[in-house]
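Escalated from tier 1: serine holo job.
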Amino acid sequence: MKLKLTADLMFGKNIDETKDFLEGLLAEFNKKMVKEKVGVEKWFINNNTLTLTVTSEGKRRAHEVLLQLRKTLSEQMGKKYRVGVRNIKTKRYEITFEVEKKPLQQIKVPFAEVSIKNRIVKLVLEEIDEEFLRKNYVDRIIKRVKEKIDAQYYEGKKEYWELIWESEQKEPLWDKDPSEEMQKLGWIVLLGKGKWFYRPPAAAIMRAMERIALENIVQPLGFKEVIEPMHVSFETWLRTGHLEGMPGEIYYICEPKSRDPAEWERFIDLVKITKEVPSEELVKNLKPPRDGVVYAQCPNIYASMRGKTIAEEDLPLLLFEHYVPSNRYESGGKHGIERVDEFHRIEIVYIGRKEQLVELRDRLIESYKHVFNNILELEWRMARVTPFYMQQAGIVGSEEEKSKGTIDFEAWLPYRGDRSKEWLEFQNISIVGEKYTKAFNIKGQKSELWSGCSGVGLERWMVSFLAQKGLNPDNWPKGFKKYLPELPEMPKFL
Ligand code: SER
Ligand code: ZN
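Tier 2 regenerated the structure:
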């Protein structure tokens, strides 16, 4: 990597008189830096400003060297002339580096002009301030360019998917779309894009699914309930990576600027007069969002334990949440309850030593198998897929060691046809490694902690079951009927 940084160092007063002294300091600095392949060149003084160029072909970044030089000069000049560097203004920063693969298309990043010749990338940054250098945005710009090149190669590649287990085939009892049929019966009603209202029969089925999961998996394995808020702060999602990975799928939350009715007067007048919502006026009264609606339940669970050290005897720590629905902004078009903007899940989270989690995952899989084989009697399978925490953080293409990663559970949807293709992911199970425990600084007394989670999607369980078994309770497996002996009746609408 070659770096070339031209900057103005502004001193507290005119430094014309100090030229010889400065020359000595810079020569000494250069001598010290030779080994590191770093140097200061092309420098001149004008009034209170020292303009210079720092170059580096070694490990040190030119901006780090500049900040170090600022300190040295301020110290030495302070002693002798009682003057220090007040301010740094970067005029031009050129960064040239080689990448492994030739970019396939032009690349853009904020703050820098990017030019590319074969595998050589050149970034030019102009007029950047000291904070920019101090916070090391430069390294992140370089990293971002490399990421974007990798993404270009990854684009169009098939998602990673590897079958690890499959049930026997089961003859479906019908081939209809359960959402469509439930809509005809009035069991479910669409209330806005991807948001369903579940009337008593549908609600009862979903709650039966939930009881099955709680009584056969969550409780026997010793998970304890927690209840979290429906809002997730950006602070939390900066740590998990969701704001990098999924910003276009989040439902954002705005607080009002004020509760004062006087501030809302015009808005209220317009609503009363037009009987419509004046969007522009509304936006004027809102603060920019700082939170979003839960996208998955686990980030808030980690956030609640930020900075904590967990007692050894409490490992693995086993928690679950099933109070807050998750919201995801989905693509438009017509979907049933298998693809929704608001869905209901039990999410279980486990934090412990690596070997504890690997063992727990096996036990979880056994319990899930029991439910899907003996209670719901599904045709289903398990596959290793791209880990959710990479996908949700927008990371593409990297492989994980086998003890980490995500396993998807999928069921065949007969109404969609082709048994070789039409499968729905209805739940998952993951070991995240140290990603989140590190991000939230959650520690063990002695041991390094890993974590993981498993999301039980109730709509997805329901749609998988109904798609294979139909809506007629007489045909449902005995194991399931134990949890729902009778369907509540529908209200009669005239
Ligand atoms: N957090 C994981 C996911 O969103 C598991 O629920 O898929
Ligand atoms: Zn999770």
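DSSP finds 16 helices and 23 strands in the chain.
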